[in-house]
Amino acid sequence: MGRNTEWNTLSDDAFRAEVRAFIEQNCPAHLRNHPRRIPRWETTRDWYKALSAKGWIAPNWPAAHGGMGLGASKLLVFVEELERWGVPRIYDMGLFMLGPILICHGTDEQKREYLPRIRSGEHRWSQGYSEPGAGSDLASLRTTAEPDGDCYVINGHKTWTTFLDDATHMFLLARTRKSERKQDGISLFLVDLDTPGVTRRLITTIAGHAELGEVFFDNVRVPAKNIVGPPHSGWSAAKDLLEFERINNGSPKLGLYVLNRLDEYAKEKGLMDDRAFADRLTALRLDLQDQYCAYRHFCALLKAGRTPGPEVSMLKIWSTETYQRLSELFLEVAGEEGVEADRQDEAGSLAALRLYYRSRPATIYSGSSEVQRNLLAKRVLGLA
Amino acid sequence: MFSLKEASSVAREPEIAAAIEAVDRYLLSASGPQHFRRALNSTNGEAEVAAYRGLADLGLTSAMLPESQGGTGFAPGVAVLIGERLGWSLAREPFIENVVFPSTLLQALGAAASGEKEIACVAWQEGAFATLDADAIRTRATVEGAGLRLRGAKRFVMGARASTRMLVLASVDGTPAIVSVASADAKLKDKRLADGTAWSDVELDVFVEPSAVLARGDKALRALTHALDLTNLAIAGVLHGLQSRILSMTLDYLVTREQFGKPLAAFQSLQHRAVDLYNHAQIARFLLGEAVDALGHAVPALTLAAYASRAKARTADSAARIAKEGIQMHGAIGFSDEYDLGLYVKRVLVLSAWLGGAAWHRRRYAALEPSAVEA
Questions:
Q1: What is the CATH number of domain A6-90?
Q2: Do A374 and B271 touch (CB under 8 A)?
Q3: Phi-psi region of A185 (alpha: psi -120 to 50; beta: other; left: phi over 0)
Q4: Does residue A370 surpass a pLDDT of 70?
Q5: Where are the domains of chain B?
Q6: Which CATH code is given to the segment(s) B4-109?
Q7: B4-109 with B220-373: one CATH topology?
Q8: What is the DSSP letter of B375?
Q9: Considering only CB atoms, which chain A residues are within 8 Å of B272?
Q10: Helices (H), chain B
Q11: Where residue A242 falls among pLDDT bands split at 50, 70, 90?
């Protein structure tokens, strides 16, 4: 039995103990509860490489592609231990987003070329979906890619890109053909950001971190073999990708991290003696606990080889809104201490302000809550 | 879209799927708003007894008993699946109060089933909320002659009217005990409930044999806690069935009803509110599906308690949301008695309150020390 599959045969408890020990030995203390939502690559590189060397960098990928092939219950154990320790967010766009899509829709050559380099951290991916005129209405995107010999020439402007500061690559959507239905004629490209004609500019968030960015493409030549899936039908791959992203955003990890910090803070301040606070915290704890059930349901669908379908939007809404309510409660009970700006850079338990900031974009990215509600209303409930 | 079938693997087991289908077939002709309204005019428990007989014909009254006692031996989670179908069909069949509650209690006590001729119920509460406090039991038994004289009063006894036997929580020699009492010996005072059904206040001044004391002390309390947990899970199943039906009726109404020249379903504010109701129903559904599967085999008492309180808290909360929004989205017709929506809404109110509502169960869950029961 290969080392990549043996974890699934351990009991959950034995696996948990092994994960915990590994994290404590390999994730240095200064990375715990990191003040930045997304620390720079140089900050988290060694931790990334330690996970990679252990074979734990891609817990959700099948073992055949160098992942852990974890089932839903082990995946949750893994996530719980990461969040208990308060590990920093790593450059995970290739791991959670592009990887599953390449495994599903990529050519053998694309899998050979990209998957190992995602696992090693050599390639760090960013996502090129949003544009200045195409946010929630993503299909209105105007970036174009025109065929020229064995290449496509890309022109356009992507924005609100996460991980841009240290990204080496971007998977992006560009229009390869004009068509009546705006979802048609779009292709998904893999682009090396060192290609001539690419320029980037970082954008500072209200949390004070330059973690977003925009990218300009000026006659950027990309090999035709870098299209994922059939040309002009990138929308369906992109939609699959968004469904993966919705499952990923539906992981209880977001809320669990806040709940752990809030539990520590409440204990420290004796807040649990306040019945009103305790009731609110329990209600949120249960919103998160019950989210586990929904998360496991959709993970099981994936595992059975089915796509999650439009229903998965409910998971994204529930997860991100619970995440926000937890962070809002934290900021509320922190009182004056919560708004002292420099405290957000403390690695201690008072994390209220930075968690308030950190949870804001969750209901905006990857399809805003409003877009998710539109999707559910039309495609699941049949309301129109 | 709402059914527990896709959310539970136990529900897909052929034998269980077949049993659920049989329940659905029966309910198609035996339940629903018209039946529900007709039964409200019955005042002496006859309708409940007839409905109980219907359950017996289906084999449901012994469904939860082990095969050694002539039952079907279904896992406890199956009561949740049956409950869901009863809720969906607005059935008033006394499955929870005269089957699940007493039979899980008797089983946990290791006592024999009450027999085919008997209809049992549990009389344990003396005040509101489902708090089980041994020191607060005022129904007491004292030795008189060769037997015991049991005196006291019980409240909120669901299923008392149809019952022939009551399992009474009493204090015997200062320790809590479950005592079996013939219902004919008790004095019932029916209390009409919000949904038109009734439970009873029970006055007790009866003589029983010493053998009527089925269990004492911790054993009695543990058994009652176990039965309460399984009963609350089954109620959660009914609440999910009710909320699914209310939401389904509401979605149909939004699509059909036109105002300002277009269907209500075309208004985005209503679409988004409907989605929120759907999300709450789905969270309840996935939780219940997981609980049903977890109860496919024996679980520790703490795990059962956590599932029970989570399930009751979640469904009481989501059903209340869906019920009130269902009325609002229907407009005036939703507030009228002639329209059926209100029947489902009122059923939600009663079943949410019985044996602890959302806030009560959230506090109970918190007291279980969540760190020990993480999902």
A1: 1.10.540.10
A2: yes
A3: left
A4: yes
A5: 4-109, 120-217, 220-373
A6: 1.10.540.10
A7: no
A8: -
A9: 370, 373-374, 377
A10: 14-30, 33-40, 46-57, 78-88, 95, 101-109, 217-256, 268-294, 301-330, 341-353, 358-367
A11: confident
Rounded distance between C-alpha atoms, residue A241 and residue A239, angstroms: 5
Tell me phi and psi for residue A142, to 5 degrees: -120, -5
Q: What is the pLDDT of residues B187-203, one digit of tens each?
A: 999 999 999 999 999 99
Instruction: Round to whole Å and give the CA distance between A57 and A122.
Output: 13
* Cβ(B241)–Cβ(B85) below 8 Å: yes
Which tokens in the block code for residue B151? 């005196």
- Of A114-123, A128-137, A146-155, the range with the lowest mean pLDDT is A128-137
Query: Three-class SS of residue B238?
Result: helix
Spatial contact of A315 and A250, defined as CB atoms under 8 Å apart: yes
Return the pLDDT at B218.
95
In order of A245, B48, B114, B131, B261, the CA distances from B221 in angstroms are 48, 29, 20, 11, 61
Q: Name, in order, each residue with C-beta under 8 angstroms of B255's C-beta and a sequence gap of 6 or more.
A: A382, A383, B263, B264, B265
CATH of domain A250-380: 1.20.140.10
Query: How many CB contacts within 8 angstroms connect chain A with chain B?
Result: 92
Closest CA to B322 of B268, B245, B267: B245
Q: Say yes or no for a CB contact (<8 Å) between B271 and A381.
A: yes
CATH superfamily of domain region A125-232: Butyryl-CoA Dehydrogenase, subunit A, domain 2 (2.40.110.10)
Are the beta carbons of A314 and B282 separated by less than 8 Å?
A: yes
Gap between the Cα atoms of B97 and B228, Å rounded? 11
In the predicted model, is pLDDT for residue A360 greater than 60? yes
Tell me the per-residue pLDDT of B21-64, one tens digit each, with 9 for 90 and over. 999 999 999 899 998 998 877 767 788 898 999 999 999 998 88
Residues A338 and A14: their CA atoms lie apart, in Å, by: 38
Contact by Cβ (8 Å): A72, A303: yes
| Nearest-CA distance B54 → chain A (Å) | 35
DSSP labels, B308-370 = HHHHHHHHHHHHHHHHHHHHHHHGGGGG-SSSTHHHHHHHHHHHHHTT--HHHHHHHHHHT-G
Residue ranges covered by each domain of chain A: 6-90, 125-232, 250-380
Of the residues A246, A262, A282, A313, the best mutation for testing chain B's interface (the one with the most B CB atoms within 10 Å of its CB) is A282
pLDDT at A343: 65
Third-level CATH fold of B220-373? Butyryl-CoA Dehydrogenase, subunit A; domain 3 (1.20.140)
pLDDT at A1: 34
* Active site annotation includes A214: no
State the pLDDT at residue A8: 80
What number does CATH give the domain B120-217?
2.40.110.10
Question: What percentage of chain A has pLDDT greater than the value 90?
Answer: 66
- Structure confidence at residue A347 (pLDDT): 45
Q: Which of A83, A211, A245, A337 is an active site residue? A: A245
**Nearest Cβ partner of A383 from B265, B284, B375?**
B265
Lowest mean per-residue pLDDT among A319-328, B36-45, B197-206, B311-320: B36-45
